[in-house]
Specification:
Helix content: 40-55%
Number of helices: 13
Number of strands: 18
Strand content: 15-25%
Strand order of the largest sheet: 6-5-7-8
Length: 452
């Protein structure tokens, strides 16, 4: 229970930082544009603490989910609606008394702040370097381990278990997670692969298929990881039966285990029976009996490749920071396109509950690997969320920043002040749209957690 609470707290903290960066962008831009800020709040709801400086109330509010930046001018807008005026009256410093270009500048600055945050984080990570852990792009055909033996795109393309995928559309692949990133948003596309099969370089063509449950493109491969033990959890069943770091698992009940997928799959099939695990230890074969009551799967971690990232100078790191931000923004756009391809939205789209939970889980998992890894994972994840938040807010939906920008561009094109009643209707429609999306996403979260 405590771990769940910690995960929720860390998830809320991470998402709040991202939202506050967004609102901070609006705040800074408004000060530059000469628009007065009425309230800058950390959190929502009732004010519980804060101070006033000038005309601005800086506060901490009751509900710790992000925050908001409120500009002066709402009273003037309300007055225009009540008195049925055809313009929005305003004093100097109020939002609607500023020029449309200044309002566009303020609206755009929130998403821009999120993008700058991502660039800064990615740049800093590349500049200082980090300890990375990864596996080679060696693959196993998923069809060879699934019960229905379904043929996947990897089977029809001619990929074989044990192949190394070394390039995707002439882009070199050094890590298995790079393979997923290069394919995940490309269902139905013809993609050129190059594989290394026992020293032979073989060109292949593959067409990933859309997994409607996850909302991603897949080819039907698993990661080949040699079954060499890196760590054994102290006090676990794996430790009790005598498994040790450095052991290579050779077989389970004489069934050969060339990789970790074979090891776990065999354990699953033989669950509920006494088994014998054979390992290679110091060039000798050792047999370890396991009773049917012992579950050793959770106490073992296997060896992966580790090392320091390539050291880059500041300008190389800055270039990489911009490139990674662009790549993530592009991936977000591609991901949005896939929402209209018949995927199961309740699984593919996260609402606030699941987003908080998943964010907290990643942060907790990162800190399990050390302080440095914890901060690295946390800020990298916040950067990814920050890019997505920037993109979502730039969508032309009323009440979002993108919708506001469209409204103010329309005002410039017409060369006439906005009609208060039209603005009210526009924002009302936007509010309804956002509420429908929020309810649908939250319902999806509930279905997701109830099905676990």
């Amino acid at each position: 229970m405590l771990s769940v609470v910690v995960r929720i707290i860390l998830g809320i903290l991470g998402l709040s930082i991202v939202v506050l960066i967004h609102e901070g962008g609006h705040y800074i831009a408004s000060r530059i544009a000469g628009i007065e800020v009425e309230t800058f709040s950390i959190g929502f709801g009732r004010r519980i603490a804060g101070f006033r400086k000038g005309r601005t109330d800086y506060r901490i509010s009751l509900i710790p989910l992000g925050g908001y930046c409120r500009f002066y001018g709402e009273q003037s807008f309300r007055k225009a609606i009540e008195e049925k005026l055809d313009y929005i009256p305003g004093n100097q410093g109020e939002f609607y008394s500023a020029s449309p270009l200044k309002r566009i500048f303020v609206s755009f600055s929130g998403p821009l702040a999120n993008l700058f945050f991502a660039v800064i984080v990615f740049t800093f990570i590349s500049w200082i370097g980090f300890q990375e852990y990864y596996t080679e792009p060696r693959v196993i055909l998923a069809s060879s381990w699934s019960e229905d033996h379904k043929l996947w795109p990897a089977d029809t393309a001619g990929i074989e278990s044990g192949d190394y995928i070394v390039s995707v559309d002439d882009k070199d692949v050094y890590r298995f997670n790079e393979l997923r990133r290069l394919l995940v948003f490309r269902p139905g596309e013809n993609i050129r692969l190059t594989v290394n099969r026992k020293g032979r370089i073989i060109p292949l063509e593959i067409k990933p298929e859309l997994n409607k449950e996850s909302g991603t493109a897949i080819i039907g491969v698993l990661n080949w990881v040699d079954p060499v033990i890196a760590e054994i959890l102290s006090g676990s069943s794996a430790a009790d039966i005598g498994l040790q770091p450095g052991d290579r698992i050779l077989s389970v009940n004489s069934i050969k285990t060339d990789h970790t997928v074979a090891f776990y799959n065999t354990l699953t099939r033989l669950s509920g029976t006494d088994i014998s695990i054979q390992v290679e230890r110091n060039s000798q074969k050792v047999n370890l009996p396991v009773s049917e009551a012992e579950d050793i799967t959770s106490g073992i971690s296997f060896q992966v490749i580790s090392g320091r990232s390539v050291k880059l100078n500041f300008f190389q790191s800055l270039a990489k920071g911009f490139r990674e931000t662009y790549d993530n923004l592009y991936s977000t756009v591609k991901g949005l396109r896939m929402l209209f391809m018949g995927i199961e939205l309740q699984n593919a789209v996260s609402g606030p509950v699941r987003l908080i939970s998943d964010t907290g889980a990643v942060v907790v998992e990162g800190f399990k690997n050390g302080i440095a890894a914890g901060f690295l994972w946390s800020f990298e994840l916040m950067s990814l969320i920050s890019v997505s938040l920037a993109f979502i807010n730039l969508l032309p939906i009323p009440v979002l920043d993108g919708g506001q920008i469209v409204l103010f561009l329309y005002e410039i094109i017409r060369r006439r002040n906005l009609n208060p009643k039209s603005v009210y209707r526009y924002q009302f429609i936007g509010t309804i749209i956002v509420l429908i999306i929020a309810v649908a996403a939250t319902t999806g979260d509930m279905i997701h957690f109830n099905s676990r």
